Amino acid sequence: MGRFATVMGAAVALAGTVLAAQAADIKILTTGAMKPVVVEMVPAFERLGHKTAVENDTAGALLKRIEGGETFDVAVITPAAIDQLSKSGKIAEGTRTNLARVGIGVMVKDGAPRPDVSSVEAFKAALLGARTVGYIDPASGGSSGIYLAKLFERLGIADAISGKAKLKKGGHVADLVVSGEAEIGIHQISEIVPVKGVTLVGPLPGEIQNYTTYAAGIASSTKEAAAANALLELLSGAEASALLKQKGMERPGS
Hints:
Layout: H1 2-22, E1 25-31, H2 35-46, E2 51-57, H3 59-67, E3 74-77, H4 79-87, E4 97-102, E5 104-109, H5 120-129, E6 133-136, H6 143-155, H7 158-162, E7 165-168, H8 174-179, E8 184-188, E9 198-203, E10 212-218, H9 225-235, H10 238-246
Parallel strand pairs: 1-2, 1-3, 6-7, 6-8
Antiparallel strand pairs: 3-10, 4-10, 5-8, 5-9
Helix pairs in contact: 2-9
């Protein structure tokens, strides 16, 4: 019995050593739209023995931070940004994994009248009739803000909107709606659904809808490639797919 106990004790100690060796500290850089999904998947990842640190920013800002030399293990940005970072040697080639896509939606404060946004003309009328319109500042690098600035030009309402625009440099446009600074807010649907105090009126009409796709990539400099790959597998799995739907997102091409 004594020998058996000794052998079992050694086996348990060895298993603990192996687990400790496999455990990793992972730094994740993610866009704001994907942050809720990443954060909710972290517990499943940490049950594998890992630890994580999650930081978010706009896609443009993350690109600048990484190109500027910031260290990380996994980045969740746009496919174009991941590809650019691969070319510059910041993201390991062949690690890009498309995770999700999300469309743009219109919101109002809870209890406020819901404007008709079911057609392009109705959408234009709703914006022109609103006292203030909130959206992400294009200069901050947010993908929805960049798209909307071009869309307003295309629809011929850019000048009218500029006089009533309430720009958010990062975070949730919904904050402007909740506070009353913006009567109508426009943002990615995944950035509207989780915020209390606002109502999602609906998505942009199909003819002018714009989907932003998000992809993940592993840093070429990471020392925790196995753990980073395990994280990408989780973010690509069934549990994450169900979570995406809850957050107003979907798998690319679905």
